[in-house]
Amino acid sequence: MYRQKSFDSESPTLYLVATPIGNLKEMTPRAVEIMQQVEYIAAEDTRNTIKLLNHFEIKAKLVSHHEHNLRQSIPHLIHLMEEGNDLVLVSDAGYPAISDPGYELVQEAICHQLNVVPISGANACLDALVVSGIAPQPFTFFGFLDHQDRLKRRQLEKYRYHQETMVFYESPYRIEKTLKMMLEIWGDREMALCRELTKRHEEIIRGRVSEILTIAGELKGEMVIVISGSQEEAKTEEEEYTLSVAEQVEAYIQSGMSSRDAIKQVSQERHLNKNEVYQTYLNERKEKEKCLS
């Protein structure tokens, strides 16, 4: 056990500073003061952070810290702190460690019994949640869904019966496809799509998934999805599937699908390997043929 006395300690401190998500006035006086006092600031993108430092006349030295250089940057930053330096960690926008680099450095700082202190500020997840009109608690924040459609579909299937309000970040380039998948897998739920939060073109769009989907393709900017949780209890495998794997394949074939497409469809629905579905179907067909002969 290690007890951290944040305001009564001589140990070097890692400050997690929330930076503006769209409006420079979101930068708190305390955040500016801390950043003006430290020698080093670790930043996800130094080109982006230098603009913030110049605006607030902050002279600290910038150190690059992002997901592609963690092995090099973490030991370096811990070494700087062990030499007696306080350190600020920022991301491009909002809180570091929330869908941005930071967690690994925090863990390492804790292992070295260095102080870790939050400096409050803007957070897109909470901003979207409180204005969404969807029940704010309990809620679960998932960050970004996977970029690959196959893996994204698997994630959405996994969260299908999640009963808490859910919050996701999404890119304007993927928002239409993501909402289509949500509608297909989860049904037509109440949601809010919050874009360009705290910026000049901030917009909160509330409605059902099907309604927002009609305009999703024309929307631009950084987006937060707030969507209501499931009203259904999770079903057991027996309740979910009244047919066996082989029977389900056969049903799709009878409906006009090719055997190849039927096997692919069943493997996706049940999250099974295609070869496994094929082998199960083949074995059951052989058993039936034996019985008939």
From TrEMBL:
Domain Tetrapyrrole methylase: from-to ranges: 13-212
GO molecular-function term, one example from the UniProt record: rRNA (cytosine-2'-O-)-methyltransferase activity
Assigned GO CC terms: cytoplasm
Keyword presence, Transport: no
Catalytic activity of the protein: cytidine(1402) in 16S rRNA + S-adenosyl-L-methionine = 2'-O-methylcytidine(1402) in 16S rRNA + S-adenosyl-L-homocysteine + H(+)
Keywords attached to this entry: Cytoplasm, Methyltransferase, rRNA processing, S-adenosyl-L-methionine, Transferase
Gene3D superfamilies: Cobalt-precorrin-4 Transmethylase, Domain 1, Methyltransferase, Cobalt-precorrin-4 Transmethylase, Domain 2
Main enzyme class: transferase
Entry keyword annotation includes Flavoprotein: no
EC number of this enzyme: 2.1.1.198
Domain of life: Bacteria
InterPro entries hit by this protein: 4pyrrol_Mease, 4pyrrol_Methylase_sf, 4pyrrole_Mease_sub1, 4pyrrole_Mease_sub2, rRNA_ssu_MeTfrase_I, SAM_MeTrfase_RsmI_CS
Subcellular localization(s) per the UniProt record: Cytoplasm
Job description of the protein: Catalyzes the 2'-O-methylation of the ribose of cytidine 1402 (C1402) in 16S rRNA.
Family: Belongs to the methyltransferase superfamily. RsmI family.
Name of this protein: Ribosomal RNA small subunit methyltransferase I
Species of provenance: Candidatus Fimiplasma intestinipullorum
Organism taxonomic ancestry: Bacteria, Bacillati, Bacillota, Clostridia, Eubacteriales
